Amino acid sequence: MSAPAIEIEGLTKDYAVGFWRPRMRRSLDHLTLQVEDGEVFGFLGPNGAGKTTTLKVLMSIIFPTSGTARVRGKAIDDVSMHREIGYLPEQPYFYDYLTARELLDYYARLFGFAASERRERVTRFLERVGLGRAADVQLRKFSKGMLQRVGIAQAILHDPQVIFLDEPMSGLDPVGRREVRDIIHDLKREGRTIFFSTHILSDAEMLCDRVGVLVGGKLQGVGAPREIVSMEVYAMEILFETPEGRPLPSSLAKNATRVGGRYRAEVPEDQLYPVLDELRRCEARILSVIPLRPTLEDYFFKLVAGDKSASPQLVEVGTR
Amino acid sequence: MSTVPGIVAVNTFREAVRDRVLYNLIVFALLMIGASVLVGEISIGISRLVIINLGLSAISIFGLVMAVFIGVGLVYKEMEKRTLYSLLAKPVRRWEFLVGKFGGLVLTLSVNTFFMALGLGAALYYVSREFLRADVAIVVAIYFILLELALVTALALFFSCFSSPMLSTLYTLGIYVAGFFSSDIREIGLVTHSPAIETSARVISYLLPNFRNFNVIAAASHGEAIPFSLIWQNTAYAALYVALVLIGASAIFSGRNLK
Fold first, then answer.
1. ipTM value for the complex
2. Which of A31, A64, B55, B233 is the most buried (most CB within 10 A)?
């Protein structure tokens, strides 16, 4: 069995806050996590949860107070590890006196590509992120969304095996978000490992094999979105129509709402069959019965709310 | 040898060119043209001396201003704008980045100095219609100015690794001024007759870069020959000092948490 693509062991980061009497503030608290080869891993959490701190530590932009991390078996302070990774920072900013083509060429030089290969790669990756026509425009004239695309291009320019993306959908319009999702899908198909932080839960639900939720610097839960969201059915949703002038059954009189000529009701799972019997008796036409499960968003908010009221605990909610 | 510092240096040079840093050459050219015309009017017989003095002093001052003000922002700007994030995610060691930034600014200063030297040569030819054998001293003086600027750049870069641009400017200019008086500091120590002060003054004077040794403008303008020993001594001194300052800067920067 091959080694995990990313291994994080007890990663902790403390910051000194205050000038005269500095106090230590913990922004990352003993983070332990593994991401398997070829996996798309979503790193979720509210603002200030420690997502960007984690990525900065992995990129050696800041140094951990304690703990270790390895990417493809190499320690994060080993510069050769950087040949195998790509990184898109949050709200990326690049040398705005360069054109998109010049910037990518500069980065490609750092990987030692020959001139002809650099030309081919730069053109190919600019096309891939939809910037082929803006290749020779100075970056100072780029919109936020265009900069984000340049950021993605520079992160994948050298065909890295592991790609770290910090809020890759940030600043993009729906079309741009769709394109980035397609790029991530393509990269996954090519067997790359992708670790991305996001606060857009629908993106995480669509893209990720597994997600981890970080709150207050602590990992609160890890699991496949399906495992997280399919744990329990908390209610059944019934959509139905009643014959003209026929009153609603008494059990649904209070909790059914009329939506466009139809009724919608949520009932506990154990009440489903008695309610359906009642609806049949009053000759209602049942349109659909859907089990309601918590969404990733519900799960996320539950964890975030829980952190405010109680001391957080590590919750392993599922395995891959 | 790693090529990363070279790649970073070329990009730093490109940044300076695109940010129109070399526009200062226009001011220098105007200064030289104005001085040449004026010197012809007012100074009979000493026109060469005035032009050489003025030209070399201007090259030194223009270079110093560039070295300090661009030097203190080299690292700070990359940290502040977070352009460093993407760069450090590439196979780039922090010391390679620093050496590259240093090399890029020295390259910019060299190109700038080269064009100013051409301007000085043109002005000199305009006022005297000839070049003398002794004018080789002017080339040596310009070389010493470049060594001095490399030293100032290294110091600016060193301070910018741990302080704000404003403080880094103050520190660098402070060291520059103090470096001119390093031998005087040693002399002051001697006249106090206190062994402690004498030792401290000697240590400080040796730690400070001796900028006075690089200033041969007066000798060059009077057509005096500059001894070969001074050329290699200054070269070795500048190379060693720059290397030590860059090692110190790398040690600090390599352990620093970026914002």
1. 0.88
2. B55
